[in-house]
## 1
Amino acid sequence: MKLTAGLLGCAVLTAALAGCGSPSSGGPETVVIRVQGMPPATDKPGLEQFKKMVADFERQNPGIKVQGSTTVFDPLTFSAKLAGGKVEEVIKVPLTEPQGLIARKQVRPLTKELSAWTHYKEFNPQVLRPLSDASGEVYGVPQAPFAQGLVYNRDLFTKAGLDPDKPPTTWAEVRTAAKAIAAETGKAGFVHESKSNQGGWQLTMLAYTHGGEVQREEGGKHVAAFNTAPVKQALTLLKEMRWTDDSMGDSQLNDQNDVIKRFAAGEIGMYMGTPGTYRLAKMTYGMENTDAFGIGPLPQAGGNATLTGGDVYLVPKSATAEKAAAAVKWLLFAYAEPQYDPAAAAQRAKELAADPESAVGVPTLPMFDAAQQTKIDEAIKPYVNVKLEHFRPWLEGTPALTLRPEPAVLAQQVYSVLDTVVQAVLTNKDASVDELLAKAETDVNAKLAAARK
């Protein structure tokens, strides 16, 4: 796997916002599609670029009108909306969801429409695999596939006497660095997310680095697999950093937004995240000193692995064949072509770079082969406005790690159960790791069994 710097613009948007798009209706022969995937109001350059992207698409496809949507994935309401047909023609979901949606036949297969694109066969198979069924039918298009790493504040590293160009590569080193940051700066040395299903999500990646897993298949059935020595070691690490080292600060109930907001304010030394969180730190939470942002590969403790994921775009079963075909044209135009065509990538990079608040060149996993990605990198190079050397440890260290996917079945429900485990360890000094994992495994197995009925 070769990791390279890519355009992080509308081709890899991270949130949604309404208020732009095309007219809500067209003539009798016009197909109107509603699409998720616009950036927040705080991402002004991304929003402006989205408007232009819609206009360009409609100009090239005069029979299609695109309506932007504010909808973002909410695990508490998504299933009900989907079952009731109350979703857009293009939906955006985390990589935990496609396999379940495919198995329940809630999304449309798109292979026929996608394969009509000249460069379809050049997709990186790794990024299409989570969007495919056992027969190879493909159901969507990925957006900014990622691999988790260790985000760190270079300024706090310097103040703590640590080398900002050499982030920790083992969890033992993370523990040492976190203690130094806490002692020398008074800031939280390391923070682990713990709510909104993100505690379980981050425990999963921590388990992978220790050689553990969260779910496995036995006899054709998926079962919980986290009541094991590697996961106990991972939780014990958190417990010791929290209570023995006192290096995790006082605020323990955090989701990703909380952590990035605090990081942007210079209050956190390290957290598990992706290069893409740079955008949130800068554009959503106003990180003034973006030169302090650094990222290395996910630290290890015997697992030699990191969690991969990302957002994906799918077309629900409720969409008509006509609208599904229009939706695929939009997906290719908006998310595939800019990651393949150097000219398109350069144009979008140039547009984004015109605004000083933009972030062009933040690395991602390549959607196509390495040779094509190299062409993209060269095309956008004149417009890159982030310090790529601060992402270099991640770029150089991640290829040596095995990419592990998220749990294949009921991932969000698994994460929800594991949230309670993480919260207990971080808020109760006397919490029993063994008891917490044993109960959680029983609870998750009950959910998995119910889903099989």
Note: The domain at 4-146+310-399 is CATH 3.40.190.10 (D-Maltodextrin-Binding Protein; domain 2).
## 2
Amino acid sequence: MSKRVLAIALTAVLAIAGCGSGDQADGPRTLKLWHYEGPDSAMGVAWAEAIKQFEAMYPGVKIAFEEKGFEQIQKTAPMVLNSSDAPDVMEYNKGNATAGLLSKQGLLTDISDEVTKRGWDKHLGPGIQTTARYDEKGVMGSGKWFGVPNYAEYVMVFYNKDMFARQGIAVPTSIAELTAAMDKFVAAGVTPLAVGGAEYPAHQIMYQLALSKANKDWVDRFQRYTGPVDFHDAAWMHGASTFADWVDKRYVSKDSAGVKAEDMGVSFMQGKHPIMISGSWWYGRLASGIKDFQWGSFLWPGLTAGSAGNMWVVPAGSKNKELAYDFIQITMSPQIQDKLRDAGGVPLVDTGSASSAAPQLKEVAENFKTLAAQDRLAFYPDWPAPGYYDVQVSAVQKLITGTATPHQVMDEIAKPYQENLANVGK
């Protein structure tokens, strides 16, 4: 589809939806947009193109884009959205502790009618809708729409093919084979894992290890409060104990407790570590940033952290809600979804067009289809309780530094979860 045809089609869709809020008759206007995707990431590339298309379609409107850090939005969103500085549309994290909490506090716009009117729900299957809908207690999975995801993500294992080849190691197909590979790297004087203990990567690894002993009922009890959660059960204790064991075996450097996610990714791209367990959001960045070695990825065996990606939300205080909806509409368009796919992202709108991406980039989208079809997505560990992200970062840092035992760490993680149950009526 040409840009001209796409623009005409989109204009027609927006007009039918009762838009037109960007008409020049309204005078110069500004849409304030926040997101935290790096410019080289698949989403950053796609959203930059969406901004260009929006401004071309609405010459009387200028998008004032501000790139915010994930941590920055994570920590300040409740305060900012309750002030006059709130953006008109922003990327925000999904889950009970974030979007669910803000929806419960009345800080996000209920966009249910807009979702139906514009047909966004038709592109998003039931599993993907889980993280976009929240009930009156802020629990995901049912109720009103408070956001629109338009990409997907999941945790996988990235590996340096050249380093594996030098050690004669085949691609692991099980946790046991992965462990054996890491033993071989340690014997060769190499720290196998690139880890960022100061942010999300470390506690996601611990969660992955717990998931290796869990099932979907376990996930639903933890994430959606469908039953009691024992933080000292076989799965949780396996996760914490195995992570501590990985530190003892020198798979994970003790110095990683202070490493941020960005620095973790850079160290992998520089070839300092042969393995990085992290998310599909790195794919485009690795594809453009790695020049000196061959790399690949493989799925974590069994259940894995993953879901629809972060989503567009419209703050309750947005001054240009119709324009915000128009921008979201463009990000859901075939051209932008294809742009995201071909840059290494996982689109949610299947346009049916042929991909121009390299086979390596196509793999990330195909693997997501496999995970979704096999019902292996298990959301993320910091979702269930407000403030849980910081708790989990701090707790797992103690496993890295050896300042707490696995039992003590699980006690620390259990406390805010149990306290939050009263807030959701459980």
Note: The first helix runs from residue 3 to 16.
